[in-house]
Protein: Acetolactate synthase small subunit
Amino acid sequence: MSALNIKKGSNKHSAYNLRPNFSDIEESHTLAVIVDNEAGVLARVIGLFSGRGYNIDSLTVAEIDHEGHTSRITIVTTGTPQVIEQIKAQLGRIVPVHRVRDLTVEGRAVERELALLKVNGEGEKRVEALRLADIFRANVVDSTLDSFTFEITGTSEKIGAFADLMRPLGLSDLARTGIAALPRGA
Structure:
């Protein structure tokens, strides 16, 4: 290709353009981080995000191997592909981190979240709340004469849709666990 065919200001074909072609579009990524289950590890991981101005959309942590003393931190974060790569690289450099997996780029993953929703209401609003709960396969885990507490499991989108429908019916309290995720297949 001759120099005349390259537009002015374009370095797409330049030997000096050695950086990968990253997009400026922000994407949501689910990261699974296996760490030692010891005091201060979660603080170090969270400190990495806060210290560099990265946002965490969802965070779940639980011990996965009692004998091996390891825990799994599932983090949902948003950023450009370049920022996501920086996050993964920086997480991998933290000493108690054993493995960092980006479930978003590895292929399809199973992602679920649990939520508890308290809905106050009387009469037709109670009936409608129960009807919608049945459609969404939400379970009643507590009931009084003037309220229900529903338990629902599913994708974040499903939980968000259920909560949106419950708001006009008297949604008074909402607790969400954050996303738990595993890759599909073998």
Notes: The chain has four helices and nine strands. Confidence is low (pLDDT under 50) at residues 1-15. The domain at 109-183 is CATH 3.30.70.1150 (Alpha-Beta Plaits).
